[in-house]
Design a protein that fits this description.
There is one protein chain. This protein is α/β, with parallel strands linked by helices. It folds into three domains: 125 residues, Glucose Oxidase, domain 1 (3-Layer(bba) Sandwich); 108 residues, Orthogonal Bundle (Enzyme I, Chain A, domain 2), CATH 1.10.274.10; 258 residues, Phosphoenolpyruvate-binding domains (TIM Barrel, Alpha-Beta Barrel), CATH 3.20.20. It has 24 helices and 16 strands. Strands 1-8-7-3-4-5-6-2 form an eight-stranded mixed sheet. Strands 9-10-11-12-13-14-15-16 form an eight-stranded parallel beta barrel, surrounded by four helices. Helix 3 crosses helix 7, helix 11 crosses helix 22 and helix 21 packs across helix 24. 52% of the residues are buried.
């Protein structure tokens, strides 16, 4: 039988061959089925048995999650076990069974009704339980319908499995075991979606945006996942497996050849010095990031302390997480972003359903509306800043009023720490992420209120081009080199320089060689990238002239289309690399 190639979006580099672990984590369809009176007690017994099986499974899942991710993250499964033992839930389902509904249909109807009630609740805690109810519904229906168990907890260490799923939710993410999983493939997502960022942080090859891989693959299928090319070869031939192994060895040699660039100074061929920092998503990866050649942390994403857990981390827990990263970088600057929760990064339980979550209650909006939660984080950051060069960054700012409101809450946090007699750093710099057109067009007003700017290109591209960055069907329209995006970056850089502010680009755009070239040409002198990309970005920097990059950027700004801008930049970059005796990296 010949192989089949599925094409998606490259999300995290690397080539892996292994068996598919299908993770179908969605509520199954339940056909209407009625029962006769004499079957009622038997269906109730089936329900009780299913509840018992689900609770046993949840205990197993909880134990595995606690070993992999810690007790706080594992606590989300305690909530689900409580739901399974809730007497009101059980009696409501039994009531429908006594009305001659089959057990699976009764479960489906009752939990659907509960989810709708919880989602509409004015009580935030109840709204947060909606996704727990969904998880319980999936587990119970899977048992009652006799469906295969797709839970990732069943993967043994060393399985070398390639997880294929529609998307990774927080309750699935917290179960991931890096010793069992070799790669990730999802139907949803793009290069800048949560799952892609997480895969790069974990060092797992990934392909996203496959659209329908879950329905086209079978559990146990052998596949070759190429996270660099964005492909999934299904049931490969022996020849294709051998070729994949050769490509894998070439990639390893290429990474080894690049490795020395990581420790080189980031200076262009014509003598312009740049700063290359690391993006850090998980505190546990701090030591690896610190050893990658980074000049500090340009973006620590704190929402990953929240995603996949039942409760918010308290002040002391946050202090420990921040200090872990700060100490790993030994005095180098560490820019920590306040919670950017919302959009595609939801805490366990999520938020009330929103038709447009990226335009909804997220990031600085959520923080300002939940001042006690925000001040807990600010107090933790102020305390942690005693251990190093910490800078605080506010996400999704669109007005000066938001910066001033955040500063007022920071002042309150300082007063509270003083009242408690707890030491903290008083002069922590406060900056903003420029990631909306509103912010980019307001940099003149924002500059006097800020210590620095950091351009978040993932969202800036999304909002400028009106393209959902998580929508795989729109991936080809997500074009960071669009002249409109380049113009907003150039404007922010120029205004920051006028006010003596550092301007860094910390979005995924900075990790791509061609785009890094464009950013340097626009005057950007600070880049923050995935640790895995530091060596390749420094290689580009040392192989170009900043003056030549500036000429290419000017041409791209006037190009009119993203396609034309990309072509002009690629031609210029190839010419520069050749001129300095380097290959073109496939640009």
């Amino acid at each position: 039988m010949s192989s089949q190639t599925l094409t998606g979006i490259p999300a995290s580099p690397g080539i892996v061959a292994g068996p598919v672990h299908l993770l179908r984590w969605e509520v199954p369809e339940v056909s209407p089925r009625t029962i006769d009176e004499e079957m009622v007690e038997g269906e109730i017994a089936r329900l009780h048995a299913a509840l018992g099986i689900a609770q046993a499974k949840l205990r197993q899942v909880r134990d595995r999650a606690e070993r992999n991710a810690g007790a706080e993250e594992a606590a989300i499964f305690d909530v689900q076990m409580e739901i399974c033992s809730d007497p009101d839930l059980k009696s409501s389902i039994e009531h429908l069974i006594r009305q001659h509904f089959a057990a699976e249909k009764a479960v489906d109807l009752v939990l659907l009704e509960w989810r709708q009630l919880f989602a509409r609740s004015t009580n935030a805690l109840m709204r947060e339980r909606t996704s727990d109810l969904t998880d319980v519904q999936i587990r119970l229906l899977s048992v009652l319908l006799g469906l295969p168990d797709h839970d990732p907890v069943d993967l043994p260490k060393g399985a070398n499995a390639i997880v294929v799923t529609h998307d990774l939710t927080p309750s699935l993410t917290v179960q991931l075991d890096r010793d069992a999983i070799a790669a990730i493939a999802t139907d949803a997502g793009t290069r800048t979606s949560h799952v892609a960022i997480l895969a790069r942080s974990l060092g797992l090859p990934a392909v996203v945006g496959l659209l329908d891989a879950v329905t086209r693959l079978q559990a146990g299928d052998t596949v070759i996942l190429d996270g660099t090319a964005g492909t999934l070869v299904v049931r490969p031939t022996s020849h294709e497996l051998a070729e994949a192994q050769q490509r894998q060895r070439r990639e390893q040699r290429s990474r080894a050849a690049l490795a020395h660039f990581a420790q080189e100074a980031a200076v262009t061929a014509d003598g312009v010095a740049l700063t290359v920092r690391a993006n850090v998503d998980l505190p546990d990866e701090a030591e690896h990031a610190a050893a990658s050649g980074a000049d500090g942390v340009g973006l620590m994403r704190t929402e990953f302390l929240v995603v996949g857990r039942a409760t918010m981390p308290d002040e002391d827990e946050q202090v420990a997480a921040y200090v872990n990263v700060i100490e790993a970088f030994g005095g180098r600057p560490v820019v920590i972003r306040t919670f950017d929760v919302g959009g595609d990064k939801l805490p366990m339980g999520g938020f009330p359903h929103e038709a447009n979550p990226f335009l909804g209650w997220r990031a600085i909006r959520m923080c300002l509306d939940e001042p006690e939660m925000f001040k807990t984080q600010l107090r933790a950051l102020l305390r942690a800043a005693l251990t190093g060069d910490v800078r605080i960054m506010l996400p999704l700012v669109v007005s000066v009023d938001e910066v001033r409101a955040a500063r007022r809450l920071m002042d309150e946090a300082k007063q509270e720490l003083t009242a408690r007699g707890i030491a903290f750093r008083h002069d922590v710099p406060l900056g903003v992420m420029v990631e909306t057109p509103a912010a980019a067009l307001s940099v003149e007003a924002l500059a006097p209120e800020c210590a620095f700017f950091s351009i978040g290109t993932n969202d800036l591209v999304q909002y400028t081009l009106a393209v959902d960055r998580g929508n795989a069907r729109l991936a080809t329209r997500f074009t960071p080199l669009h002249p409109a995006v380049l113009g907003l970056i150039a404007r922010t850089q120029a205004e920051g320089a006028k006010h003596g502010l550092e301007v860094c680009v910390c979005g995924e755009m900075a990790s791509e060689p061609l785009m890094a070239f464009a950013l340097i040409g626009l005057g950007i002198r600070q880049l923050s990238v995935s640790p895995i990309a530091i060596a390749s970005v420094k290689r580009i920097i040392t192989g170009i002239d900043a003056s030549g990059a500036a000429s290419a950027a000017r041409a791209a700004l006037a190009a009119g289309t993203a396609e034309r801008a990309e072509a002009l930049l690629a031609e210029a970059l190839r010419a520069q690399l050749r001129a300095h005796g380097m290959d073109d990296l496939g640009v």
